[in-house]
Design goal:
The protein contains 18 helices and 14 strands. The chain has 534 residues and is an alpha/beta fold. It binds adenosine-5'-diphosphate and magnesium ion. Adenosine-5'-diphosphate binds next to helix 6. Belongs to the DEAD box helicase family. DDX23/PRP28 subfamily.
Length: 534
Amino acid sequence: MNVLYQNPHEAQLLFGRGFRAGMDRREQKKLAAKNEKDMRDEFRKKEGVDEKPEEVAAQKLKEEAADLYDTFDMRVDRHWSEKKLEEMTERDWRIFREDYNISYKGSKIPRPMRSWEESKLTSELLKSVERAGYKKPSPIQMAAIPLGLQQRDVIGIAETGSGKTCAFVLPMLTYISRLPPMSEENEAEGPYAVVMAPTRELAQQIEDETVKFAHYLGIKVVSIVGGQSIEEQGFRIRQGCEVVIATPGRLIDCLERRYAVLNQCNYVVLDEADRMIDMGFEPQVMGVLDAMPSSNLKPENEDEELDEKKIYRTTYMFSATMPPAVERLARKYLRNPVVVTIGTAGKATDLITQHVIMMKESEKSYRLNRLLEEAGDKTAIVFVNTKKNADMVAKNLDKLGFRVTTLHGGKSQEQREISLEGFRTKRYNVLVATDVAGRGIDIPDVAHVINYDMPGNIEMYTHRIGRTGRAGKTGVATTFLTHGDSDVFYDLKQMLIQNNSPVPPELAKHEASKFKPGGIPDRPPRRNDTVFAH
Ligand code: ADP
Ligand code: MG
Protein backbone atom coordinates (compact mmCIF):
# COMPACT_ATOMS: atom_id res chain seq x y z
CA MET A 1 0.00 0.00 0.00
CA ASN A 2 2.96 2.27 0.58
CA VAL A 3 3.83 4.30 -2.54
CA LEU A 4 7.48 3.89 -1.72
CA TYR A 5 7.27 0.25 -2.74
CA GLN A 6 5.41 0.79 -5.97
CA ASN A 7 8.48 1.86 -7.83
CA PRO A 8 11.38 -0.06 -6.33
CA HIS A 9 14.76 1.23 -7.24
CA GLU A 10 17.35 -1.19 -8.60
CA ALA A 11 20.70 0.02 -7.36
CA GLN A 12 23.36 0.14 -10.09
CA LEU A 13 26.42 -1.47 -8.61
CA LEU A 14 29.29 0.79 -9.58
CA PHE A 15 28.15 1.09 -13.18
CA GLY A 16 28.30 -2.59 -13.81
CA ARG A 17 31.50 -3.31 -12.05
CA GLY A 18 30.01 -4.90 -8.98
CA PHE A 19 27.70 -7.89 -8.65
CA ARG A 20 25.03 -9.18 -6.37
CA ALA A 21 25.73 -12.51 -4.84
CA GLY A 22 23.58 -15.46 -5.72
CA MET A 23 22.41 -14.23 -9.14
CA ASP A 24 23.62 -15.19 -12.57
CA ARG A 25 26.54 -12.93 -13.30
CA ARG A 26 25.98 -12.98 -17.01
CA GLU A 27 22.44 -11.72 -16.60
CA GLN A 28 23.65 -8.98 -14.31
CA LYS A 29 26.37 -8.01 -16.74
CA LYS A 30 23.87 -7.85 -19.63
CA LEU A 31 21.52 -5.77 -17.60
CA ALA A 32 24.33 -3.37 -16.74
CA ALA A 33 25.24 -3.02 -20.43
CA LYS A 34 21.60 -2.35 -21.29
CA ASN A 35 21.24 0.23 -18.54
CA GLU A 36 24.32 2.01 -19.76
CA LYS A 37 22.91 2.15 -23.28
CA ASP A 38 19.54 3.44 -22.05
CA MET A 39 21.32 6.14 -20.11
CA ARG A 40 23.32 7.23 -23.14
CA ASP A 41 20.23 7.17 -25.40
CA GLU A 42 18.38 9.38 -22.99
CA PHE A 43 21.33 11.77 -22.83
CA ARG A 44 21.51 11.93 -26.63
CA LYS A 45 17.80 12.59 -26.96
CA LYS A 46 18.06 15.45 -24.55
CA GLU A 47 21.11 17.00 -26.22
CA GLY A 48 19.89 16.18 -29.73
CA VAL A 49 23.09 14.46 -30.89
CA ASP A 50 23.37 11.43 -33.15
CA GLU A 51 24.82 8.13 -32.15
CA LYS A 52 28.39 7.77 -33.39
CA PRO A 53 29.31 4.56 -35.24
CA GLU A 54 32.22 3.82 -32.90
CA GLU A 55 29.83 4.07 -29.98
CA VAL A 56 27.51 1.56 -31.61
CA ALA A 57 30.44 -0.78 -32.18
CA ALA A 58 31.64 -0.36 -28.60
CA GLN A 59 28.18 -1.12 -27.32
CA LYS A 60 28.01 -4.25 -29.41
CA LEU A 61 31.36 -5.39 -28.10
CA LYS A 62 30.19 -4.85 -24.57
CA GLU A 63 27.08 -6.92 -25.07
CA GLU A 64 29.11 -9.72 -26.58
CA ALA A 65 31.59 -9.50 -23.75
CA ALA A 66 28.75 -9.76 -21.31
CA ASP A 67 27.75 -12.97 -22.94
CA LEU A 68 31.25 -14.37 -22.71
CA TYR A 69 31.98 -12.82 -19.41
CA ASP A 70 32.85 -15.17 -16.67
CA THR A 71 31.62 -18.22 -18.47
CA PHE A 72 33.36 -19.99 -15.63
CA ASP A 73 30.77 -21.39 -13.31
CA MET A 74 31.49 -23.36 -10.18
CA ARG A 75 28.72 -25.78 -10.98
CA VAL A 76 29.78 -26.71 -14.46
CA ASP A 77 33.56 -26.18 -14.49
CA ARG A 78 35.68 -29.27 -14.21
CA HIS A 79 38.85 -29.75 -12.25
CA TRP A 80 42.02 -29.24 -14.32
CA SER A 81 42.83 -32.93 -14.11
CA GLU A 82 39.74 -33.70 -16.18
CA LYS A 83 40.67 -31.22 -18.88
CA LYS A 84 42.69 -31.57 -22.00
CA LEU A 85 45.81 -29.46 -22.26
CA GLU A 86 44.16 -27.02 -24.71
CA GLU A 87 41.25 -26.51 -22.34
CA MET A 88 43.38 -25.32 -19.46
CA THR A 89 42.55 -21.76 -18.45
CA GLU A 90 44.76 -19.36 -16.54
CA ARG A 91 42.74 -20.21 -13.48
CA ASP A 92 43.29 -23.96 -13.97
CA TRP A 93 47.04 -23.39 -14.14
CA ARG A 94 46.94 -21.38 -10.96
CA ILE A 95 45.11 -24.16 -9.17
CA PHE A 96 47.51 -26.69 -10.65
CA ARG A 97 50.48 -24.77 -9.23
CA GLU A 98 48.75 -24.51 -5.88
CA ASP A 99 47.93 -28.21 -5.86
CA TYR A 100 51.59 -29.06 -6.24
CA ASN A 101 52.95 -26.17 -4.24
CA ILE A 102 54.96 -24.89 -7.21
CA SER A 103 56.02 -21.26 -7.26
CA TYR A 104 58.15 -19.40 -9.76
CA LYS A 105 60.19 -16.25 -9.88
CA GLY A 106 61.49 -14.99 -13.20
CA SER A 107 60.32 -13.96 -16.65
CA LYS A 108 58.92 -15.82 -19.67
CA ILE A 109 58.24 -19.02 -17.81
CA PRO A 110 56.95 -22.00 -19.78
CA ARG A 111 54.00 -23.96 -18.42
CA PRO A 112 54.77 -26.88 -16.15
CA MET A 113 54.04 -30.34 -17.53
CA ARG A 114 51.08 -32.13 -16.00
CA SER A 115 52.17 -35.61 -16.97
CA TRP A 116 54.94 -37.42 -18.76
CA GLU A 117 52.78 -37.74 -21.88
CA GLU A 118 52.43 -33.97 -22.08
CA SER A 119 56.15 -33.33 -21.73
CA LYS A 120 58.21 -32.60 -24.81
CA LEU A 121 60.64 -35.41 -24.04
CA THR A 122 61.60 -37.77 -26.83
CA SER A 123 59.81 -41.09 -27.00
CA GLU A 124 63.10 -42.82 -26.20
CA LEU A 125 63.45 -40.94 -22.94
CA LEU A 126 59.80 -41.46 -22.10
CA LYS A 127 60.33 -45.15 -22.51
CA SER A 128 63.23 -45.09 -20.08
CA VAL A 129 61.07 -43.14 -17.61
CA GLU A 130 58.49 -45.87 -17.88
CA ARG A 131 61.14 -48.53 -17.33
CA ALA A 132 62.30 -46.67 -14.22
CA GLY A 133 58.75 -47.05 -12.94
CA TYR A 134 58.07 -43.32 -12.57
CA LYS A 135 54.33 -43.14 -13.15
CA LYS A 136 53.94 -39.43 -12.54
CA PRO A 137 56.48 -36.60 -12.55
CA SER A 138 57.16 -35.11 -9.12
CA PRO A 139 56.39 -31.38 -8.69
CA ILE A 140 60.00 -30.28 -9.20
CA GLN A 141 60.10 -32.40 -12.34
CA MET A 142 56.83 -30.89 -13.59
CA ALA A 143 58.25 -27.42 -13.18
CA ALA A 144 61.92 -27.82 -14.04
CA ILE A 145 61.90 -30.18 -17.03
CA PRO A 146 60.06 -27.78 -19.39
CA LEU A 147 62.51 -25.06 -18.34
CA GLY A 148 65.50 -27.28 -18.97
CA LEU A 149 64.16 -28.27 -22.38
CA GLN A 150 64.17 -24.58 -23.31
CA GLN A 151 67.78 -24.30 -22.11
CA ARG A 152 66.79 -21.88 -19.39
CA ASP A 153 68.97 -21.45 -16.33
CA VAL A 154 67.20 -22.78 -13.28
CA ILE A 155 67.54 -22.42 -9.54
CA GLY A 156 65.56 -25.23 -7.93
CA ILE A 157 64.61 -25.10 -4.28
CA ALA A 158 63.03 -28.31 -3.07
CA GLU A 159 63.33 -30.74 -0.21
CA THR A 160 65.53 -33.78 -0.43
CA GLY A 161 63.76 -36.81 -1.77
CA SER A 162 61.66 -34.74 -4.16
CA GLY A 163 63.23 -36.15 -7.32
CA LYS A 164 65.56 -33.30 -8.23
CA THR A 165 68.08 -35.60 -9.91
CA CYS A 166 65.69 -36.76 -12.59
CA ALA A 167 64.55 -33.13 -13.02
CA PHE A 168 67.96 -32.13 -14.33
CA VAL A 169 69.03 -35.45 -15.87
CA LEU A 170 66.24 -35.65 -18.44
CA PRO A 171 66.77 -32.19 -19.98
CA MET A 172 70.52 -32.83 -19.86
CA LEU A 173 70.17 -36.04 -21.84
CA THR A 174 67.83 -34.34 -24.29
CA TYR A 175 70.46 -31.67 -24.85
CA ILE A 176 73.21 -34.25 -25.33
CA SER A 177 71.24 -36.38 -27.74
CA ARG A 178 70.99 -33.40 -30.10
CA LEU A 179 74.79 -33.10 -30.31
CA PRO A 180 77.05 -35.12 -32.57
CA PRO A 181 77.94 -38.43 -30.94
CA MET A 182 81.29 -38.68 -29.16
CA SER A 183 83.96 -39.88 -31.54
CA GLU A 184 87.69 -39.83 -31.92
CA GLU A 185 87.34 -36.36 -33.34
CA ASN A 186 85.77 -34.69 -30.36
CA GLU A 187 86.34 -36.89 -27.32
CA ALA A 188 89.59 -35.07 -26.52
CA GLU A 189 87.60 -31.88 -26.02
CA GLY A 190 85.98 -33.29 -22.90
CA PRO A 191 82.42 -34.09 -21.83
CA TYR A 192 79.25 -32.30 -22.96
CA ALA A 193 77.84 -31.95 -19.45
CA VAL A 194 79.16 -31.72 -15.91
CA VAL A 195 77.29 -32.34 -12.68
CA MET A 196 78.91 -31.28 -9.41
CA ALA A 197 77.83 -32.59 -6.04
CA PRO A 198 79.30 -32.10 -2.55
CA THR A 199 80.07 -35.70 -1.57
CA ARG A 200 81.20 -38.94 -3.14
CA GLU A 201 78.07 -40.76 -2.03
CA LEU A 202 75.88 -38.16 -3.63
CA ALA A 203 77.87 -38.24 -6.85
CA GLN A 204 77.45 -42.00 -6.81
CA GLN A 205 73.71 -41.70 -6.47
CA ILE A 206 73.44 -39.15 -9.25
CA GLU A 207 75.46 -41.49 -11.42
CA ASP A 208 73.07 -44.35 -10.70
CA GLU A 209 70.05 -42.20 -11.52
CA THR A 210 71.68 -40.84 -14.70
CA VAL A 211 72.71 -44.25 -15.94
CA LYS A 212 69.12 -45.42 -15.50
CA PHE A 213 68.12 -43.11 -18.35
CA ALA A 214 71.38 -42.63 -20.25
CA HIS A 215 71.92 -46.34 -20.69
CA TYR A 216 69.27 -46.65 -23.39
CA LEU A 217 70.63 -43.70 -25.34
CA GLY A 218 74.18 -45.00 -25.41
CA ILE A 219 75.37 -41.99 -23.45
CA LYS A 220 78.42 -42.65 -21.28
CA VAL A 221 78.74 -41.37 -17.74
CA VAL A 222 81.96 -41.16 -15.71
CA SER A 223 82.21 -40.14 -12.08
CA ILE A 224 85.23 -38.27 -10.81
CA VAL A 225 85.37 -38.46 -7.02
CA GLY A 226 88.07 -38.64 -4.39
CA GLY A 227 89.27 -41.96 -3.03
CA GLN A 228 89.85 -43.53 -6.43
CA SER A 229 92.80 -43.36 -8.80
CA ILE A 230 92.90 -40.01 -10.55
CA GLU A 231 94.94 -41.42 -13.43
CA GLU A 232 92.30 -44.01 -14.12
CA GLN A 233 89.53 -41.43 -13.97
CA GLY A 234 91.46 -39.20 -16.36
CA PHE A 235 91.88 -42.15 -18.68
CA ARG A 236 88.17 -42.88 -18.63
CA ILE A 237 87.32 -39.27 -19.50
CA ARG A 238 89.73 -39.29 -22.43
CA GLN A 239 88.14 -42.50 -23.66
CA GLY A 240 85.14 -40.35 -24.44
CA CYS A 241 82.14 -39.74 -22.24
CA GLU A 242 79.26 -37.32 -22.54
CA VAL A 243 78.57 -36.75 -18.85
CA VAL A 244 80.95 -36.26 -15.94
CA ILE A 245 79.64 -36.39 -12.40
CA ALA A 246 82.14 -35.05 -9.92
CA THR A 247 82.95 -33.61 -6.57
CA PRO A 248 84.38 -30.12 -7.15
CA GLY A 249 87.71 -30.75 -5.38
CA ARG A 250 88.60 -33.79 -7.44
CA LEU A 251 87.38 -32.26 -10.68
CA ILE A 252 89.53 -29.13 -10.31
CA ASP A 253 92.47 -31.42 -9.52
CA CYS A 254 91.81 -33.33 -12.71
CA LEU A 255 91.60 -30.10 -14.72
CA GLU A 256 94.71 -28.57 -13.20
CA ARG A 257 96.72 -31.70 -13.83
CA ARG A 258 95.45 -31.75 -17.39
CA TYR A 259 93.76 -35.12 -17.03
CA ALA A 260 90.59 -33.53 -18.30
CA VAL A 261 89.39 -30.51 -20.23
CA LEU A 262 85.95 -28.93 -20.51
CA ASN A 263 86.25 -27.34 -23.94
CA GLN A 264 82.80 -28.38 -25.14
CA CYS A 265 80.90 -28.50 -21.88
CA ASN A 266 77.81 -26.34 -21.97
CA TYR A 267 75.52 -28.01 -19.53
CA VAL A 268 76.33 -27.59 -15.85
CA VAL A 269 74.49 -28.77 -12.78
CA LEU A 270 75.37 -27.74 -9.24
CA ASP A 271 73.53 -30.13 -6.96
CA GLU A 272 73.16 -29.21 -3.29
CA ALA A 273 74.91 -25.91 -3.95
CA ASP A 274 74.46 -24.71 -0.39
CA ARG A 275 76.14 -27.80 0.96
CA MET A 276 79.08 -27.38 -1.43
CA ILE A 277 79.54 -23.82 -0.16
CA ASP A 278 79.22 -24.99 3.47
CA MET A 279 81.98 -27.47 2.84
CA GLY A 280 84.23 -24.71 1.54
CA PHE A 281 84.07 -25.71 -2.13
CA GLU A 282 83.21 -22.26 -3.47
CA PRO A 283 86.68 -21.63 -5.03
CA GLN A 284 86.74 -25.08 -6.66
CA VAL A 285 83.22 -24.71 -8.04
CA MET A 286 84.13 -21.33 -9.49
CA GLY A 287 87.38 -22.76 -10.84
CA VAL A 288 85.47 -25.45 -12.72
CA LEU A 289 82.91 -22.99 -14.07
CA ASP A 290 85.70 -20.70 -15.23
CA ALA A 291 87.32 -23.60 -17.07
CA MET A 292 84.37 -23.81 -19.44
CA PRO A 293 84.03 -21.81 -22.64
CA SER A 294 82.47 -18.47 -21.73
CA SER A 295 81.64 -17.60 -25.32
CA ASN A 296 78.46 -19.60 -24.97
CA LEU A 297 77.10 -17.76 -21.96
CA LYS A 298 73.71 -16.28 -22.67
CA PRO A 299 73.66 -12.50 -23.14
CA GLU A 300 73.57 -10.51 -19.91
CA ASN A 301 70.68 -8.47 -21.20
CA GLU A 302 67.67 -10.65 -20.58
CA ASP A 303 65.53 -8.95 -23.23
CA GLU A 304 67.93 -9.88 -25.98
CA GLU A 305 66.51 -12.61 -28.19
CA LEU A 306 68.30 -15.95 -28.04
CA ASP A 307 69.49 -17.39 -31.32
CA GLU A 308 67.65 -20.66 -31.73
CA LYS A 309 70.44 -22.30 -33.64
CA LYS A 310 73.16 -21.34 -31.20
CA ILE A 311 74.17 -23.48 -28.24
CA TYR A 312 74.11 -21.66 -24.94
CA ARG A 313 75.49 -22.71 -21.63
CA THR A 314 72.70 -23.96 -19.42
CA THR A 315 73.24 -23.92 -15.70
CA TYR A 316 71.09 -25.70 -13.17
CA MET A 317 71.50 -25.08 -9.50
CA PHE A 318 69.79 -26.96 -6.72
CA SER A 319 69.82 -25.99 -3.13
CA ALA A 320 67.65 -26.50 -0.08
CA THR A 321 68.27 -22.92 1.07
CA MET A 322 69.68 -19.76 -0.52
CA PRO A 323 72.42 -18.33 1.70
CA PRO A 324 74.24 -15.22 0.36
CA ALA A 325 77.19 -17.22 -1.00
CA VAL A 326 74.85 -19.28 -3.19
CA GLU A 327 73.15 -16.09 -4.37
CA ARG A 328 76.56 -14.75 -5.30
CA LEU A 329 77.36 -17.80 -7.39
CA ALA A 330 73.98 -17.60 -9.06
CA ARG A 331 74.42 -13.94 -9.92
CA LYS A 332 77.81 -14.54 -11.42
CA TYR A 333 77.11 -17.66 -13.49
CA LEU A 334 73.37 -17.85 -14.15
CA ARG A 335 71.65 -15.74 -16.78
CA ASN A 336 68.06 -14.67 -16.35
CA PRO A 337 67.35 -17.74 -14.22
CA VAL A 338 63.96 -18.96 -13.18
CA VAL A 339 63.69 -19.76 -9.50
CA VAL A 340 61.42 -22.72 -8.90
CA THR A 341 60.39 -23.34 -5.32
CA ILE A 342 58.47 -26.41 -4.27
CA GLY A 343 56.69 -26.12 -0.97
CA THR A 344 58.30 -23.89 1.58
CA ALA A 345 62.06 -23.86 1.26
CA GLY A 346 63.94 -25.24 4.21
CA LYS A 347 60.81 -26.38 6.02
CA ALA A 348 60.88 -29.86 7.48
CA THR A 349 58.13 -31.88 5.94
CA ASP A 350 54.87 -32.23 7.78
CA LEU A 351 55.13 -35.98 7.51
CA ILE A 352 57.83 -36.12 10.17
CA THR A 353 56.86 -36.39 13.81
CA GLN A 354 59.52 -34.65 15.83
CA HIS A 355 60.35 -35.56 19.42
CA VAL A 356 62.94 -33.77 21.49
CA ILE A 357 64.03 -35.28 24.80
CA MET A 358 66.13 -33.39 27.32
CA MET A 359 68.70 -35.57 29.04
CA LYS A 360 72.20 -35.77 30.45
CA GLU A 361 75.06 -36.92 28.26
CA SER A 362 75.40 -40.03 30.44
CA GLU A 363 71.79 -41.11 29.80
CA LYS A 364 72.08 -41.13 26.01
CA SER A 365 73.44 -44.62 25.58
CA TYR A 366 70.67 -46.24 27.64
CA ARG A 367 67.93 -44.19 25.98
CA LEU A 368 69.19 -45.14 22.54
CA ASN A 369 69.05 -48.84 23.34
CA ARG A 370 65.51 -48.48 24.55
CA LEU A 371 64.41 -46.57 21.45
CA LEU A 372 65.97 -49.07 19.09
CA GLU A 373 64.48 -51.99 20.96
CA GLU A 374 61.05 -50.43 20.60
CA ALA A 375 61.67 -49.80 16.89
CA GLY A 376 62.37 -53.51 16.37
CA ASP A 377 63.12 -54.34 12.77
CA LYS A 378 62.52 -50.86 11.39
CA THR A 379 65.41 -48.98 9.84
CA ALA A 380 66.97 -46.14 11.78
CA ILE A 381 69.80 -43.69 11.28
CA VAL A 382 71.56 -42.54 14.43
CA PHE A 383 73.37 -39.24 13.90
CA VAL A 384 76.37 -38.29 15.99
CA ASN A 385 78.70 -35.31 15.71
CA THR A 386 82.11 -36.97 15.69
CA LYS A 387 83.75 -40.01 14.12
CA LYS A 388 84.84 -41.12 17.57
CA ASN A 389 81.27 -41.07 18.84
CA ALA A 390 80.11 -42.93 15.76
CA ASP A 391 82.50 -45.78 16.40
CA MET A 392 81.74 -45.82 20.11
CA VAL A 393 77.95 -45.86 19.69
CA ALA A 394 78.13 -48.50 16.95
CA LYS A 395 80.37 -50.72 19.05
CA ASN A 396 77.94 -50.59 21.98
CA LEU A 397 74.97 -51.39 19.79
CA ASP A 398 76.84 -54.19 18.12
CA LYS A 399 77.58 -55.73 21.51
CA LEU A 400 73.88 -55.59 22.33
CA GLY A 401 73.13 -57.54 19.16
CA PHE A 402 71.78 -54.84 16.87
CA ARG A 403 72.54 -55.13 13.15
CA VAL A 404 74.55 -51.95 12.96
CA THR A 405 76.93 -50.29 10.51
CA THR A 406 78.63 -46.90 10.37
CA LEU A 407 79.19 -44.12 7.86
CA HIS A 408 81.65 -41.33 8.50
CA GLY A 409 84.49 -39.43 6.87
CA GLY A 410 87.16 -41.53 8.57
CA LYS A 411 86.29 -44.59 6.53
CA SER A 412 87.66 -45.40 3.12
CA GLN A 413 85.47 -44.96 0.09
CA GLU A 414 85.13 -48.69 -0.25
CA GLN A 415 84.10 -49.18 3.37
CA ARG A 416 81.52 -46.42 3.04
CA GLU A 417 80.02 -48.00 -0.03
CA ILE A 418 79.82 -51.37 1.70
CA SER A 419 78.08 -49.82 4.72
CA LEU A 420 75.61 -47.95 2.61
CA GLU A 421 74.86 -50.92 0.41
CA GLY A 422 74.37 -53.14 3.46
CA PHE A 423 71.97 -50.62 4.91
CA ARG A 424 70.04 -50.23 1.67
CA THR A 425 69.63 -53.96 1.34
CA LYS A 426 68.59 -54.16 5.01
CA ARG A 427 71.46 -56.40 6.03
CA TYR A 428 71.89 -53.73 8.69
CA ASN A 429 68.90 -51.89 10.06
CA VAL A 430 70.78 -49.32 12.10
CA LEU A 431 73.19 -46.86 10.53
CA VAL A 432 75.33 -44.73 12.83
CA ALA A 433 76.52 -41.74 10.87
CA THR A 434 78.12 -38.33 11.02
CA ASP A 435 76.89 -35.55 8.75
CA VAL A 436 78.55 -37.18 5.77
CA ALA A 437 75.17 -38.91 5.40
CA GLY A 438 73.15 -35.89 6.44
CA ARG A 439 72.36 -34.60 3.01
CA GLY A 440 71.24 -35.75 -0.33
CA ILE A 441 71.97 -39.40 0.13
CA ASP A 442 68.92 -41.34 -0.78
CA ILE A 443 68.22 -44.17 1.57
CA PRO A 444 64.64 -45.27 1.11
CA ASP A 445 62.30 -46.17 3.95
CA VAL A 446 64.14 -44.86 6.96
CA ALA A 447 61.49 -45.07 9.63
CA HIS A 448 63.40 -43.31 12.36
CA VAL A 449 66.08 -40.65 12.59
CA ILE A 450 67.74 -40.32 15.98
CA ASN A 451 69.94 -37.37 16.76
CA TYR A 452 72.15 -38.92 19.40
CA ASP A 453 73.96 -35.59 19.31
CA MET A 454 72.12 -32.42 18.40
CA PRO A 455 73.89 -30.79 15.43
CA GLY A 456 75.42 -27.34 15.83
CA ASN A 457 72.85 -25.56 13.67
CA ILE A 458 69.22 -25.85 12.71
CA GLU A 459 69.91 -26.27 8.98
CA MET A 460 71.80 -29.48 9.64
CA TYR A 461 68.97 -30.60 11.91
CA THR A 462 66.51 -30.08 9.05
CA HIS A 463 68.63 -32.06 6.66
CA ARG A 464 69.19 -34.89 9.09
CA ILE A 465 65.54 -35.35 9.92
CA GLY A 466 64.80 -35.10 6.19
CA ARG A 467 66.26 -38.62 5.90
CA THR A 468 62.87 -39.84 7.05
CA GLY A 469 59.37 -38.89 5.88
CA ARG A 470 60.44 -39.17 2.25
CA ALA A 471 58.36 -39.76 -0.82
CA GLY A 472 55.08 -39.31 1.00
CA LYS A 473 55.83 -41.73 3.83
CA THR A 474 55.64 -40.73 7.46
CA GLY A 475 58.62 -40.83 9.76
CA VAL A 476 59.77 -40.12 13.28
CA ALA A 477 62.71 -38.00 14.35
CA THR A 478 63.93 -38.15 17.94
CA THR A 479 66.56 -35.79 19.26
CA PHE A 480 68.59 -36.16 22.44
CA LEU A 481 69.19 -32.67 23.74
CA THR A 482 71.56 -31.66 26.51
CA HIS A 483 72.24 -28.34 28.18
CA GLY A 484 75.45 -28.18 26.18
CA ASP A 485 73.39 -27.57 23.00
CA SER A 486 72.00 -24.23 24.18
CA ASP A 487 73.33 -22.41 21.08
CA VAL A 488 70.55 -23.98 19.01
CA PHE A 489 67.80 -23.92 21.62
CA TYR A 490 66.17 -20.85 20.14
CA ASP A 491 66.06 -22.15 16.59
CA LEU A 492 65.01 -25.61 17.63
CA LYS A 493 62.15 -24.29 19.70
CA GLN A 494 60.93 -22.17 16.76
CA MET A 495 61.18 -25.17 14.51
CA LEU A 496 59.11 -27.37 16.82
CA ILE A 497 56.49 -24.67 17.25
CA GLN A 498 56.20 -24.20 13.49
CA ASN A 499 55.70 -27.93 13.01
CA ASN A 500 53.17 -28.22 15.80
CA SER A 501 55.48 -30.59 17.62
CA PRO A 502 55.62 -30.66 21.41
CA VAL A 503 58.32 -28.50 22.98
CA PRO A 504 59.72 -30.19 26.09
CA PRO A 505 59.17 -27.95 29.13
CA GLU A 506 62.90 -27.80 29.97
CA LEU A 507 63.50 -26.37 26.51
CA ALA A 508 60.52 -24.03 26.55
CA LYS A 509 61.57 -22.58 29.91
CA HIS A 510 65.27 -22.34 29.19
CA GLU A 511 66.68 -18.79 28.93
CA ALA A 512 68.65 -19.67 25.79
CA SER A 513 65.47 -20.66 23.98
CA LYS A 514 63.98 -17.19 24.41
CA PHE A 515 66.51 -15.17 22.45
CA LYS A 516 68.47 -15.75 19.33
CA PRO A 517 72.15 -16.27 20.22
CA GLY A 518 74.00 -13.00 19.80
CA GLY A 519 71.41 -11.19 21.84
CA ILE A 520 69.42 -9.63 18.98
CA PRO A 521 66.03 -11.23 18.88
CA ASP A 522 64.72 -11.45 15.29
CA ARG A 523 67.19 -9.27 13.46
CA PRO A 524 65.77 -7.08 10.69
CA PRO A 525 66.29 -8.37 7.17
CA ARG A 526 69.62 -7.57 5.57
CA ARG A 527 70.32 -6.71 1.98
CA ASN A 528 71.81 -10.09 1.12
CA ASP A 529 69.02 -12.18 2.55
CA THR A 530 66.89 -13.83 -0.03
CA VAL A 531 63.20 -13.88 0.55
CA PHE A 532 61.14 -16.02 -1.75
CA ALA A 533 57.67 -14.94 -2.54
CA HIS A 534 55.22 -17.77 -2.80
P1 ADP B 1 66.48 -35.35 -4.32
O1 ADP B 1 67.69 -35.11 -5.18
O2 ADP B 1 65.41 -34.31 -4.50
O3 ADP B 1 66.82 -35.56 -2.89
P2 ADP B 1 66.32 -37.84 -5.71
O4 ADP B 1 66.51 -37.35 -7.09
O5 ADP B 1 67.50 -38.47 -5.03
O6 ADP B 1 65.76 -36.69 -4.79
O7 ADP B 1 65.08 -38.85 -5.74
C1 ADP B 1 64.61 -39.51 -4.61
C2 ADP B 1 64.02 -40.87 -4.97
O8 ADP B 1 62.80 -40.74 -5.68
C3 ADP B 1 64.94 -41.70 -5.86
O9 ADP B 1 64.96 -43.01 -5.36
C4 ADP B 1 64.28 -41.65 -7.23
O10 ADP B 1 64.56 -42.82 -7.95
C5 ADP B 1 62.81 -41.52 -6.88
N1 ADP B 1 62.03 -40.78 -7.89
C6 ADP B 1 62.39 -39.63 -8.52
N2 ADP B 1 61.43 -39.21 -9.35
C7 ADP B 1 60.41 -40.07 -9.26
C8 ADP B 1 59.11 -40.18 -9.88
N3 ADP B 1 58.67 -39.28 -10.77
N4 ADP B 1 58.33 -41.24 -9.53
C9 ADP B 1 58.76 -42.14 -8.62
N5 ADP B 1 59.97 -42.11 -8.00
C10 ADP B 1 60.79 -41.10 -8.30
MG1 MG C 1 69.61 -34.76 -4.79
